[in-house]
Amino acid sequence: MSDREFSGNDDLSLPKATVQKIITEILPPSSGLSFARDARDLLIECCVEFITLISSEANDIAEKEAKKTIACEHVTKALEDLGFQDYVEGVLEVASEHKEQQKVWNLVSFGCWGGAGGGLRIGRRGLMYEVGQTREKKQSKLEQSGLSEAELLRQQEELFAGARVKYEQVPPGSD
After folding, report:
1. How far apart are CA 77 and CA 97, in angstroms?
2. Cross-strand bridge partners of residue 129
3. Do the beta carbons of residue 78 and residue 57 sit within 8 Å?
4. Which of 84, 98, 116, 164 could be cross-linked to 79 through a Cys-Cys bond (beta carbons 3.0 to 4.6 Å apart)?
5. Number of other CB atoms surrounding residue 18 within 10 Å
6. What is the pLDDT of residues 101-158, one digit of tens each?
């Protein structure tokens, strides 16, 4: 294990509502089976432990390769090394789907769908909306001031000098 070993899983968890939703999808009420809260909490603890184990092993593999970022191949190697070969195919499928979604996200979010600065954007909650022409670039405070850089530097020096004089006029111990 690495020097960044997890100190404890007290602060690590999964959203209970999301886990409950997944459980309900797997065990619909029509099945007549129920899942107790204690069982759900235990399932969450096991999932967190599994994720911690895999990510720690993947981190060790990445470090051995002198990589600073854990890549998909590090995760799949960790799964294989820890005896979870059956999960590798599913992980690779999900990783491939994720890459495809990222391509779409990049196309949409950078306005490649639509022309002349317009296009589709993905907003909060994944909703797409169309935007028109791109707005004109806002002026910076420097540009808005209308002053040259030399004039601004001169004003700054005056302010520093004034502050220095005020600081030096305060008698010691009058704080």
Report:
1. 19
2. 121
3. yes
4. 84
5. 10
6. 887 777 665 554 444 444 555 554 454 444 444 445 566 776 777 888 888 889 989 9
